[in-house]
Amino acid sequence: MRTWKQTFGIIWTGQLLSILSTSMVNFAIILWLSIEHNSAEVLAYAAIAGMLPQSVLGLVAGAYVDKWNRKLTMILSDGFIAFCTLLIAFLFYIGETEVGLIYLLLAFRSVGTAFHMPAMQASIPLLAPESELLRISGVNQIIQSLSIIAGPALGALAISVMDIEKVLLFDVAGAVLAIISLLLVHIPNPKKQENEQQESLLKQISNGIQTVLKNKGLMYLFVASMVMMFCIMPVAVIFPLFTLRHFNGGAFEMSVIEVIWGLGMLVGGAALGMLKISYNKAIMINTMCFVVGLTFLLSGILNPTQFWIFVFLTAIGGLSAAIYNACFTTIIQEQVEPALLGRVFSLAMSISILPSLIGLLSTGYLADSIGISETFVILGTLICIVGITSFFVKDIIRIGRKIN
Question: Quick check: 403 pLDDT over 60?
């Protein structure tokens, strides 16, 4: 009988290889788009294609995640993503290299992610003690950051020595390894209420929404996250162009920024993973929100010769984002019963993505008309305001007081 730590070790190994290959392929695609098109709108549309299915399917996917076998859901999601990637690789192989195919790839992969992400997050409280949830979130951030660090370097190397269709095959291999790791472990499913099987899909979705609305602190935290993501996504998309245009950088400088963001996340995740932190998680979320906004704001006022200051600010932003994400995830896992977690995580994903899509639609205008630097300043300031304002919302502060 495996301990929960051994189970997580097997799962994390598969996830690390899968996320690393995905990070590698994603950066290769971004690099290809940036160099081939040098357009903020192209990058924005690619981001929209990669997120729109998640936001549209979010609420429905969450209801099914809570209804279905969660382990099987993750396996089928990984398999679907691998199949779609393999199909697009074949299209590239036969010479179909238009940008529309990239959008199609990202959209199909997003469908699989819409089911995989909530299933994974909702399974964690069923496998580990509640007192370890924040540390587990920290380890998950470490995995993400390791992939962010190594992915760009591997992606840049891969795209320079092989065709993009061959690069895509790394993502297929990563998904297969993730599936194998899931097959080796047992993931329990939560106990369902007797009347839940007879409930309609709309009723199950409504139960997830009501769970959030009844918890005022969680509801306000979701609203703050929604506004924050509305501001962050346009900035995240134009990061490569900011490096190319403002600092006159190239592939190397773009890779440095991606890696340094990952290093920041690695430090933040490691701190949470190794330390048993009992500080109010809501205060940590608000503080990290403010810091992320401040790094964007300060980056926007740098002159073209201050690239390495931008690198430093990016590292601080990555560290803050890792702590923010880990604390946000842990609060949801603590506040919501396991049988509803799939729906609530899907809801969190949807309300974060939908506003950010609106922000992304204006990315081309902001970057090309107002200016990339000015966009960093404006949106960074708004994120700072969200962080400061959240300190004065008592219900948000209250839900973060639970001591692990």
Answer: no
Rounded Cα gap, residues 2 and 127, in angstroms: 11
| Site of tokens 């472990």 | 185
Task: Give the pLDDT of residue 1.
Answer: 58
In one letter, which amino acid is 173?
A
Q: How far is CA 308 from CA 120, 247, 253, 303, in A?
A: 37, 10, 10, 11
pLDDT tens digits, one per residue of 345-376: 777 777 777 666 666 666 666 666 778 888 88
Q: Which residues of 348-371 are buried (b: 16+ CB within 10 A; e: fewer)?
A: bbbbbbbbbbebbeebbebbeeee
- Helices 133-161 + 251-274 axis angle, to 10: 160
- Token pair, residue 75, equals 């396996």
Tell me the average pLDDT of the chain.
79
The predicted pLDDT at position 278 comes to 67
Residue 33: name the closest of 230, 231, 254 by CA.
254
Higher pLDDT: 402 or 138? It is 138
pLDDT at position 92 over 80: no
Domains of the chain: 4-185+200-399 (1.20.1250.20)
CA distance 394 to 220: 10
In single-letter form, the type of residue at position 86 comes to L
- 152 Rama sector, left if φ>0, alpha if ψ -120 to 50, beta otherwise: alpha
Tokens in use for 204? Answer: 């199950």
Q: Tell me the per-residue pLDDT of 188-245, one tens digit each, with 9 for 90 and over.
A: 877 665 555 556 667 767 777 788 888 888 889 888 888 888 788 777 777 777 888 7
Instruction: Return the HEC string of 267-285.
Output: HHHHHHHHCCCCCCHHHHH
Q: Is the pLDDT assigned to residue 404 strictly greater than 50?
A: no
30 touches 157 (CB < 8 A): no
Instruction: Specify burial of residue 186 (Cβ count, 10 A radius: 0-12, 13-18, 19+).
Output: exposed
Task: Label residues 298-331 b or e (16+ Cβ within 10 Å = b).
Answer: bbbebeeeebeebbebbbbbbbbbbbbbbbbbbb
Rounded Cα gap, residues 202 and 96, in angstroms: 41
